[in-house]
Amino acid sequence: MDTSHLLNYLSSYAFPTASHTISTNIVLGISLGGHAAWHCVLHDARISTAVIVIGCPDYTRLMMDRARKSKLQTWVSTERPGAQFLGSVDFPKGLIEAIEKYDPAGLLMGELDVVTGDDHLHEPSDEEKTRLRPLMRDHLGGKRILCLSGGTDKLVPYQCGEPFLGFLKRAVGEGEWFSDRETVLEDIVDIEAGHEFSPKMKDEAIRFIGETLSGKSGMHAGTRSSKI
């Protein structure tokens, strides 16, 4: 929301005489900024491209991972650890409702009917696709996203965002059920990097932004995954 407010007034500060017109908005965020970049690219139509560095698109999984590692009382107090963490005082109902509205995984995967924990693995039913298509069209249509993660990151583990990224890649990949909206998702993991914006990640970010600005990207829709 703060970024969107800034965009409202950016041109008046950057070009007070209206000598230039801003035609493209690209967001790059690191760590907490990476979480925010996911929200920006999904919820602000003016932002067409995002570079997410060591950020997570699934706040719930990230917080559950931290609750488990820290042995939070609301995590360990049940016979099956974590069984009642969601909805507890540490993760209240109001927070869950906000996540379902704004968090990438909460917004999109919340439309899936299966709630077994591996709901991201199944092919969405026709009914689920009917609910998902307008959401994905409004929030992801024509967007370009580069997700950069550290393979040894313990603060924001890649594994926390991997289910959502896998779900999204299976939707927007070539020939898949949401492949006609020119959504690009690149998912790149620097296998040796921790919670950092590594030199290899910087090279990928520069490449991706350059391709976006030049319009010379070899990929105008679909996905790319790699480990560097």
How would a crystallographer describe the biggest sheet? 5 strands, parallel
Shape: globular
At CATH's second level, what is the architecture of the domain at 23-58 and 135-227?
3-Layer(aba) Sandwich
At the first level of CATH, the class of the domain at 23-58 and 135-227 is: Alpha Beta
Strand order of the largest sheet: 1-2-3-4-5
H/E element order: HEHEHHHHHEHEHE
CATH H-level superfamily of the domain at 23-58 and 135-227: Alpha/Beta hydrolase fold, catalytic domain
What is the radius of gyration?
18 Å
| Average of per-residue pLDDT values | 92
User: How many strand units?
Assistant: 5
Q: By helix and strand content, what is the structural category? A: alpha/beta
Instruction: Please estimate the helix content.
Output: 40-55%
Report on the structure:
- The protein has 228 residues and is of the alpha/beta class.
- The protein has a domain of 129 residues: Alpha/Beta hydrolase fold, catalytic domain (Rossmann fold, 3-Layer(aba) Sandwich).
- It is built from nine helices and five strands; from the N terminus they run αβαβαααααβαβαβ.
- The protein has a five-stranded parallel sheet with strand order 1-2-3-4-5, sandwiched between helices.
- The chain is globular and about 65 Å long.
- The model has no long low-confidence stretch (mean pLDDT 92).
- InterPro entries: AB_hydrolase_fold (IPR029058).
- This is AB hydrolase-1 domain-containing protein.
List the defining traits of the structure above.
single chain, about 230 residues, alpha/beta, Rossmann fold, five-stranded parallel β-sheet, 5 strands, about 45% helix, globular, AB_hydrolase_fold, AB hydrolase-1 domain-containing protein
